[in-house]
Amino acid sequence: MKKLLIASHGDLAQGMLSSIQVITGTTAGITTINAYKEGVDLNEELTNFINSLEKADEVFVFTDLYGGSVNQKITERFLLENLAIRIISGFNFPVILEILLGPDQVTTSMLEEMIEKSRRELQINVLHPQVIVEDSDEDFFN
Q: Which pTM does this prediction carry?
């Protein structure tokens, strides 16, 4: 089974989970950690997630910032636990959905293509309001 961990500074992870629920109708197999919030112990949350894993699980971990404190602590913990996982940092919603809704087995090359596709889809849309030209010869009150 696919198991996803979404971890972020603050409430981003919980927001992603809410959006996943709206789009897919389920949050099965997904755990979130909203680090650095009052009452959240990152180490305890990681322990709970690790304890929920089974040998056959395919594990994907999403962290908000590559090299950020959440990413560092999770990387260190999984290395210490000697668990085979893939960490995707700087995650976005389309990548999470594609992994969640994609094939049962996701190869590293498939994951790389998903990430590359996501990079290509990151776009800027600059809106320019229409310039309204007023005729200065016209009297406003006539």
A: 0.85
